[in-house]
Amino acid sequence: MPTDQADQGARSPTGSGSSRPILQYVDVYKRFGDVEVLRGLSIDVHEGERLSLIGPSGSGKTTVLRLAMTLEEPTDGLILYDGRLLAGEPKGGGDRPSRRARRQMARDFGMVFQQFNLFPHMTVMRNLTEAPRRVLKLQKDEAAQRALNLLEQVGLAGLEYRYPQQLSGGQQQRVAIARALAMQPRVMLFDEITSALDPEIVGEVLAVVRDIALETSTTMLIVTHEMRFARHVSDRVVMFDGGVAVEAGPPEQIFDAPLEARTRDFLRAISHGY
């Protein structure tokens, strides 16, 4: 892989103008036992940017998100958030962030998983208000109004007192998106959010994410196998394979004129039902 090419694409995002990096992966490695999941990842995510990660299953894409959420720790390398160390061991024995500092930084991230992960014993309203009240210390009325606004935004107004099991899969995933947004994160992480859905309801969930991208300045890091969606929502697309960022660039480059043979092979396989 021409690493300098991938790095150049990764560090020159289209659509982000002169915005500064909000999230930086600096020569990040991640191993699980003998399995190396990420190999020297260096990429900047700029404030307000929509960055999509594509590639075959097992290529390390989800691990990129889990590292940002501090659900995993890098084996080597650094992860910076807003110029501050979020994870990793500084070279030369520098100080690591305190547990409190990491918790405060983590509040700025919202993640939507493949599975909906809603609290089954809580109504939709309580699923959306629990964290804002406990973590952000919002008053009950303020948290409830925020929840109602978000439910309207994701097309679920009037369902606030239903329980997750009373909702369809697509509705549950939209509640999960609203729950993440209720914390007003600066960075939203989406991990294959349509993979557990029936094909006929994928579009309604992707439409919600598209609307968020169009109507807000929230930074987004999106792992997806929906190529048409990635083309339309992204400022930049990164192709992953074998734990390496093979190629990065604007959607029109990646999908219409990819520079790397591995990207071309993957997109060809996808188009034939990979």
Oligomer classification:
single chain
Strand content: 15-25%
Q: Which outline best applies?
A: globular
From the alpha-carbon coordinates, what is the Rg to the nearest angstrom? Answer: 19 Å
Let me know the largest β-sheet: 6 strands, mixed
By DSSP, the count of extended strands is: 10
Could you spell the SSE succession in H and E letters? HEEEHEEHEHHHEHEHEEHH
The low-pLDDT segments are 1-18
Distance between the termini: 22 Å
Q: Strand order within the widest sheet?
A: 6-7-8-3-9-10
Q: How much is the average pLDDT?
A: 90
- Helix share, percent: 25-40%
What structural category arises from helix and sheet content? alpha/beta
Number of helical stretches of at least 4 residues: 10
What does this protein look like?
With 274 residues, this protein is of the alpha/beta class. It is built from ten helices and ten strands. It has helices spanning 3-10, 61-68, 99-106, 124-134, 140-153, 169-181, 202-215, 227-233, 251-256, 261-271, and strands spanning 21-32, 35-46, 50-54, 76-81, 84-87, 109-112, 187-191, 219-223, 236-241, 244-249. The protein has a six-stranded mixed sheet, sandwiched between helices. Strands 2-1-4-5 form a four-stranded antiparallel sheet, covered by helices on one side. Strand 9 (236-241) and strand 10 form a beta hairpin. Helix 5 crosses helix 6 (169-181) and helix 6 packs parallel to helix 7 (202-215).
